[in-house]
Amino acid sequence: MNAAVRPDAPEIRQARADNPKMRERDLARQLGISEAEFVAAWCGEGALRVSPDANELLIGLEAVGEVMALTRNESAVHEKIGIYDKVVTGAHSAMVLGEQIDLRIFPKVWAHGFAVEKRDGDEIRRSLQFFDAQGEAVHKVHLRPGSNLYAYQNLVSRLAIADQSQKVAVKAMEVAIDAAPAGAVASMEELRDLWSRLTDTHQFFGMLKALNLTRLQALDMVGQDYAWLLDADAVSAMFSHSVQEQIPIMCFVGNRGCIQIHKGPLQNVQPMGPWLNVMDKTFHLHLRMDHIRQAWVVRKPTKDGHVTSIEAYDAAGEMVIQFFGARHEGEAERGDWRFIAENLPRVPQSSAA
After folding, report:
1. Is this prediction's pTM over 0.85?
2. Measured distance CA(296)–CA(334) in Å, rounded
3. What is the pLDDT of residues 278-336, one digit of tens each?
4. 239 dihedral zone (left: phi>0; alpha: psi -120 to 50; beta)
5. Cβ contacts of residue 26 below 8 Å, gap of 6+?
């Protein structure tokens, strides 16, 4: 839908009234608009535009107490209940390093923000919602019964901006982050040389950039001693084994503006249609298994020995979700996690070529 025929705010609100049970993200897509445009239609009627300053948000959230943090992409929704503590601010990246809420945030991606109130029977549900320049959700914070409402209202007041119009200007979708780069790419020998000399998993992105390779190009090229393709059922099998053996894992879900991490064992895993759901006390995950087109085991050298991840990608080559065995800096990888990862069903080498 082009800009000339985009629905205005009353039309968006009417569409909501006509489709009360449809998820806002799905209804926005049906209307041909972004989710940020959808939320903006309620400014002055339950929504307030706020600054998308991620650092100011993080500084103010600790006083709000227990909340639910939500980060998602097209195929996975990651929800954590806890407190925003151990905050590290920064212009290029910010972090929350709490026991429950663990985030890596890229503030320059955050472009639009809203404080939203919705009546649900006798209750009012409150949330802070943030979006990128394309209007895609990057992070949301939902209040819970134990949240400090006074601190929340003070934070919203500090973040409120003068512009309260019911429209937001959104940009066209950019080229995907993992799209093939222009120019010559590295050889297998160059890739294996740099890969073998990694000492920290955080060096991986810089290596890809230096070699002009996408993540999937590197996995496909490096050789099966470092990365191998898994069978279609391997991710489900990983969940089953992790629950059965109570292995604490790390589960990463992210988008361009935020990565959210869970660390700990999984308890309650429930498949439902195309979704695989984790419904634990402080962690909920909703994963579209039918969106996974490739899953890989990836081994990266570190100063503490090699570290093994399981990574799932969608049809566009975008990472959907990533798993590690839970560990702290300076610790060797868990043997039980490594055993599971290395024994998941693989795609035969000739089929992977």
Report:
1. yes
2. 19
3. 999 999 999 999 999 999 999 999 999 999 999 999 999 999 999 999 998 888 999 99
4. alpha
5. none
